[in-house]
């Protein structure tokens, strides 16, 4: 029997995990829902696959000070069962990736490290100002998700670094993520939008908007968010924000949609997402 | 899935078997497989090349010789001989390969067999008690929820997961939560009826 393929490693501690990832040609294997078919198709050729799912520190969600710590290997199914207002934009995305069977395996950390422009949790991580904790034999570093992506399927994480956790600051306000797909399930976003709005006495005091699948990476649109601050998020303010969102996008034609169609969808999708975030912001009581 | 399942005592030995080759890699799983308690833990592990991988399927321990690259689907069908689980797309899109692992439904084409050591794997062959069908199987027959039948094992396993999760409360919910299973004969209305009936019976 040919022995082509790879070495499979199953560490149980972060210390072993980062030692294993220092092996030449090592790839972190989380849920495998992307990696297993990519490897089988020859798109990646790992020498070592390091199964991160059995490291206890990488599993579970807990409150740590004024942030929520999500273990990188927490499954999207486990996340989706949560009822945490402060994570709404992330959970909206986690609940619609693939299908139920995919979400039982797929992880938040896997979605982040895959860094697809269309990744459904990524716009939520951006608007909620999440921070990735990366560990390697060289130490620990914390990278805000807004500085994480460098291109389609590319990011600042080195192969020898393990994504251990994702921290999301607990803040007031409401957030949401919505996407456009041709099918409700088992599809990838043609366009995705996330928004976070903080409202005091009916006036927006802080905001963030992120767009997915319409640029080389998921990205924040600060100019769009700024137009909402100081307004009541009325139709005019939202229309202004939509102009900035469209201006910040650079969609391409691909198998899932044309540039023109994406630009056409982006405006109403941004509006719908902002209105959902607004409803949630107005409905939420201060912590 | 909880941390208390993890056998920390194994960590000391795992480095020593690193790159030790097939013989050493094969020895650890066999030893774990002979002891039920040990098989319940999640040992640290290393595997390069073919080795015996302990897989608990439908309550029986199997130890097929597998390379790490073999998916759970291929291990079940081609190495263990349980061909009830079907290979449709082999890339996570059709749901024909759905099985339960520790009671949760997953697509067996998207996971490697080595990743599921020590887990309780249930396939369609493990549902009936003798001649007595599982209520979901009976409901699929009773509602004529299949034509060619190729997707049916996956549909049945997914339906069990859907009902167990509490996601079968309405037709709309069933459609949403069964959306990972495609049926090219398009028996969807009858599948929804079968899941609805089975959910009532199992409640």
Automatic annotation (TrEMBL), chain A:
Keywords: FAD, Flavoprotein, Oxidoreductase. Residues 1-173 form the FAD-binding PCMH-type domain. GO terms for molecular function: FAD binding; oxidoreductase activity. It comes from the Bacteria. InterPro entries: CO_DH_flav_C (IPR005107), CO_DH_flav_C_dom_sf (IPR036683), Diverse_Substr_Oxidored (IPR051312), FAD-bd_PCMH (IPR016166), FAD-bd_PCMH-like_sf (IPR036318), FAD-bd_PCMH_sub1 (IPR016167), FAD-bd_PCMH_sub2 (IPR016169), Mopterin_DH_FAD-bd (IPR002346). This is Oxidoreductase. It comes from Spongiactinospora gelatinilytica.
TrEMBL record, chain B:
The lineage of its organism: Bacteria, Bacillati, Actinomycetota, Actinomycetes, Streptosporangiales. InterPro entries: 2Fe-2S-bd, 2Fe-2S-bd_dom_sf, 2Fe-2S_ferredoxin-like_sf, 2Fe-2S_ferredoxin-type, 2Fe2S_fd_BS, Aldehyde_Oxdr_Iron-Sulfur, Beta-grasp_dom_sf, TAT_signal. It comes from Spongiactinospora gelatinilytica. Residues 31-53 are annotated as: Disordered. Residues 51-127 form the 2Fe-2S ferredoxin-type domain. Residues 31-41 have a biased composition (Low complexity). PROSITE patterns: 2FE2S_FER_1, 2FE2S_FER_2, TAT. Keywords: 2Fe-2S, Iron, Iron-sulfur, Metal-binding, Oxidoreductase. One of its GO terms (molecular function) is 2 iron, 2 sulfur cluster binding. Pathway: Alkaloid degradation; nicotine degradation. This is (2Fe-2S)-binding protein.
């Amino acid at each position: 029997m040919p022995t082509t393929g790879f070495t499979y490693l199953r560490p149980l501690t972060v210390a072993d995990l980062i030692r294993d990832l220092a092996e030449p040609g090592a790839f972190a294997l989380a849920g495998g829902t992307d990696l297993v078919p990519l490897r089988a198709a020859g798109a990646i050729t790992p020498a070592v696959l390091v199964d991160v799912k059995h490291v206890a520190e990488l599993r579970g969600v807990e409150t740590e000070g004024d942030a929520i710590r999500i273990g990188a290997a927490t499954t999207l199914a486990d996340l989706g069962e949560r009822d945490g207002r402060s994570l709404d934009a992330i959970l909206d995305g986690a609940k619609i990736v693939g299908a139920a069977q995919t979400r039982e395996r797929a992880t938040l950390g896997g979605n982040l490290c895959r860094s697809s422009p269309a990744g459904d949790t990524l716009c939520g991580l951006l608007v909620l100002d999440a921070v990735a904790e990366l560990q390697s034999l060289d130490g620990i570093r914390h990278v805000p998700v807004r500085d994480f992506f460098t291109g389609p399927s590319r990011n600042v994480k080195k192969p020898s670094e393990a994504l251990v956790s994702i921290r999301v600051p607990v803040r007031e306000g409401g957030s949401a993520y919505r996407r456009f797909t041709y099918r409700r399930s088992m599809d990838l976003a043609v366009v995705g939008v996330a928004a976070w709005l903080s409202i005091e006495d009916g006036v927006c005091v802080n905001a963030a908007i992120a767009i997915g699948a319409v640029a080389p990476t998921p990205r924040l649109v600060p100019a769009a968010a700024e137009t909402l601050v100081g307004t009541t998020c009325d139709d005019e303010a939202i229309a202004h924000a939509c102009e900035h969102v469209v201006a910040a996008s650079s969609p391409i034609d691909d198998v899932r949609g044309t540039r023109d169609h994406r630009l056409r969808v982006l405006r109403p999708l941004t509006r719908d997402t902002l209105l959902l975030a607004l409803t949630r912001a107005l409905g939420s009581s201060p912590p | 899935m909880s941390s208390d399942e993890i056998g920390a005592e194994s960590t000391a030995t795992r480095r020593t078997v690193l790159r030790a080759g097939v013989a050493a890699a094969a020895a650890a799983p066999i030893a774990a497989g002979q002891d039920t308690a040990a098989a319940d833990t999640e040992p640290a592990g290393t595997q390069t090349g073919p080795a015996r991988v302990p897989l608990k399927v439908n309550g029986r321990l199997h130890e097929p010789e597998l390379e790490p690259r073999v998916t759970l689907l291929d291990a079940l069908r081609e190495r263990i001989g349980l061909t009830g689980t079907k290979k449709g797309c082999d890339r996570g899109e059709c749901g024909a390969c759905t099985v339960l692992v520790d009671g949760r439904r997953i697509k067996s084409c998207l996971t490697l067999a080595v990743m599921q050591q020590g887990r309780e794997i249930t396939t369609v062959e493990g549902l009936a008690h003798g001649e007595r069908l599982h209520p979901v199987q009976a409901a699929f027959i009773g509602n004529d929820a299949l034509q060619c039948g190729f997707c049916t094992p996956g549909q049945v396993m997914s339906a069990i997961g859907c009902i167990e999760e509490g996601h079968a409360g309405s037709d709309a919910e069933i459609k949403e939560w069964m959306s990972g299973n495609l049926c090219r004969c398009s028996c969807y209305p009858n599948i929804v009826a079968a899941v609805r009936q089975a959910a009532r019976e199992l409640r």
